[in-house]
Amino acid sequence: xxxxxxxxxxxxxxxxxxxxxxxxxxxxxxxxxxxxxxxxxxxxxxxxxxxxxxxxxxxxxxxxxxxxxxxxxxxxxxxxxxxxxxxxxxxxxxxxxxxxxxxxxxxxxxxxxxxxxxxxxxxxxxxxxxxxxxxxxxxxxxxxxxxxxxxxxxxxxxxxxxxxxxxxxxxxxxxxxxxxxxxxxxxxxxxxxxxxxxxxxxxxxxxxxxxxxxxxxxxxxxxxxxxxxxxxxxxxxxxxxxxxxxxxxxxxxxxxxxxxxxxxxxxxxxxxxxxxxxxxxxxxxxxxxxxxxxxxxxxxxxxxxxxxxxxxxxxxxxxxxxxxxxxxxxxxxxxxxxxxxxxxxxxxxxxxxxxxxxxxxxxxxxxxxxxxxxxxxxxxxxxxxxxxxxxxxxxxxxxxxxxxxxxxxxxxxxxxxxxxxxxxxxxxxxxxxxxxxxxxxxxxxxxxxxxxxxxxxxx
Length: 459
What we know:
This protein is mostly beta strands. 10% of the residues lie in helices and 40% in strands. It is built from six helices and 35 strands. The chain has a 17-stranded mixed beta sheet that branches. The radius of gyration is 28 Å and the shape is elongated. The protein starts with a helix and ends in an 11-residue tail after the last helix.
C-alpha cells in the first residue's frame, strides 16, 4: 500500500508526463471560404470562425477566401485571398510591457494590420513583420502590406479593364516641412498636437505653429512653397492635387497669425482660381505668383519698428506682390496687385489702401524667399511611377495611420513611411516611397475598408 507521499509523487509524475497545451495567442473572428492553419509540428487543420491560433502557426487563405483574426493584445489582422502568414513569435502579458514581442512573416499575398497594445505601449522594437527582402517595424499604426509576385500585375491589368472607380486615399500627405525652427508643432483636425521635424508630413486639417525663434518652410505636392515667419500660425483648410486633371485640383489655406511668403506651384499655374489664401481680414487669390502677407495689430507709422511678436490676423494686413499678380478682397471687391505693388487693409471690412512704399518696419521678414529654396522632390514625396510599374516585385506597404520603418534585410537601409504614403522594398535593392498608390492596393476593397472584414466578391 503506497503512502500519501508516494501517491503525491505519482500524481506529479503523471501531470508532468502530459503534453503541455500551448497558450492561444489569437482568435479567428471571421472566416470566408477555405482557410487553414499549419501547426509548428506540421499538422494542417481547416479552421472556422472561433478557432484559436498558437505561436508558430502558419495561417493560409485560399483563392476567394479570407479571414480576420484578433490577437490577445487587441491587434487585428485581416488576410486577403491567397495569403500565407506565419506567426513565429508572440508574447503579451498585461503586467510586463517590457517583454512584449511579436514577429510574423508574410510569405504570400497581403494583409491589413491594426496594431494592438504590443505596438503602442513603449517598446518600439516589439513588432516585426518580415516580407520578401524587407522588415516592417511600427510605431503604433494601421497599415496594409502586400507581397507582390505575378498576382499584383494580373490584378492591376484586370481591374484596369473593369475600370473600377477607386476610393479616395484616406488623409493623404499633402505637404512636408523642408525646414523649421526647433519647437514648431502641428495641431491636427482631431485636436492632437505633434512636434514637427524636418521632413515631417502635413495633412488637411493641420494647423502649423512656428516657434518664435525662426521660420518654417513648407513644400506642397504640386510644388507650391510657403515660408512662415517666426511665431506664425497657418492652417491647411483643403487641398487636392491631380497632376493629370488640373480642373480637379485646388488649395485653400489660412494665415491665422504672423506672416508668410509664397510661390505658386502647378495648381496656381494651371487652375489659379482654385487657390485661396485667407485671413480674417481678406481673401487673397493668385495668378501664378510670388507674394508676401504680414499681419499687424494696427497700421504701422513710418517711424515704427517691427513688432517684437507676431500679430494675430484679425486686424491690419499688409500684402505685396514680388512677381506675377494677386487679388485682395476684403468685401469691397477684389483689388489687383501687380509685381512690385503693395497695399494695406487696416482691419476686417476696410477699404484697401495702396502703398507707395513697403513699410520699413516690415523690410526684414526674417524668412527666406521660397523661390530660393533647394530641395529634392522625390526625397520628400517619393517616386512617381505609371501603372505599368505594378510589374515590380517586392513588398508594398501603405500606411493608414501612424508611422512605419521599412528596412531592407540585406543592407539595413531604412525608409520612414508616414500615414497617407506607400513605401516599396523591391527584390533588386530598391527602397523608396511611391508618388502614387499602385492600382492593386487602391482597388483592394477588402483591405481598404475602415473596418476590414473577409466578405469579398467572388470572380
